[in-house]
Design a protein that fits this description.
alpha/beta; 13% strand; 9 helices; binds magnesium ion; binds BIS(adenosine)-5'-pentaphosphate; single chain
Length: 193
């Protein structure tokens, strides 16, 4: 089993590269952002609660995220592995994920950190906002999301560095160039496990 955390600020390419990774390595994609947007689209109570945070650029409460992620993760029996996209986002989420995976005997193998300048990730989201229909893809909220990333999510770099699992990927190239760097790192991990 191969468990990858794809880590990075908003707009660094986590969703884009997850798609590439799942088609090459047949992993199950778990994006907490996508899960929340699906709840919103289906008009559920969870969706309404999540929307009240997402539209402000704030993190959805951990309890909501855990429950939804748990449902999805446990519905895939015999998955060859997971790619976690946009999760964990707080130290608390990382600790809970570690406990959950350790119990199963398949810990996080690697954390791929997509390193992109703030200006570039902002520009990428602004460009996407022309057709994305995401309420949080507007100038003020993008800056809020980036600020929340710095305050609450970036400390995880240190958390995973201490576990020796962090690999930095230069995310500034084209989608193909970044994917090539990612593939090289994943291939190295596969040889080891
Ligand atoms: P989430 O959905 O996770 O959004 P995000 O982290 O803000 O990031 P994005 O999805 O906008 O960017 P991305 O890194 O996936 O980049 P993408 O590939 O799309 O979270 C949204 C909200 O949900 C959060 O704010 C929070 O409220 C809530 N939430 C989610 N998870 C949570 C959690 N665990 N806990 C609490 N709350 C949570 O690329 C962006 C654009 O750039 C695209 O148009 C793409 O085509 C383009 N692009 C990608 N790569 C390149 C490249 N190399 N060159 C040029 N363009 C590129
Ligand atoms: Mg995304």
């Amino acid at each position: 089993m191969l468990n990858i955390v794809l880590f990075g600020a908003p707009g660094t390419g986590k969703g884009t590269q997850s798609e590439n990774i799942i088609s090459k390595y047949q992993l199950v994609h778990l994006s907490t952002g996508d899960i929340m947007r699906d709840e919103i689209k289906r008009g559920t109570q969870i969706g309404a609660l999540a929307k009240s945070y997402i539209d402000k650029g704030l993190l959805v409460p951990d309890s909501v995220i855990f429950k939804q992620l748990y449902f999805r993760a446990t519905s895939f029996n015999n998955a060859p592995g997971f790619i976690f996209d946009g999760f964990p986002r707080t130290i608390n989420q990382a600790v809970v994920l570690d406990k959950f995976l350790d119990k199963k005997g398949f810990p996080v193998d690697v954390v791929l950190y997509l390193d992109v300048t703030e200006k570039e990730s902002f520009n990428r989201i602004m460009y996407r906002s022309q057709h994305s229909n995401r309420a949080d893809d507007n100038e003020d909220i993008i800056w809020k999301r980036i600020a929340v990333y710095h305050e609450q999510t970036k400390p995880l770099l240190n958390y995973y560095q201490q576990q020796n699992k962090m690999i930095t990927i230069n995310g500034m190239g084209t989608i193909e160039e970044v994917f090539s760097l990612i593939s090289t790192e994943i291939d190295k991990i596969i040889v080891k496990i």
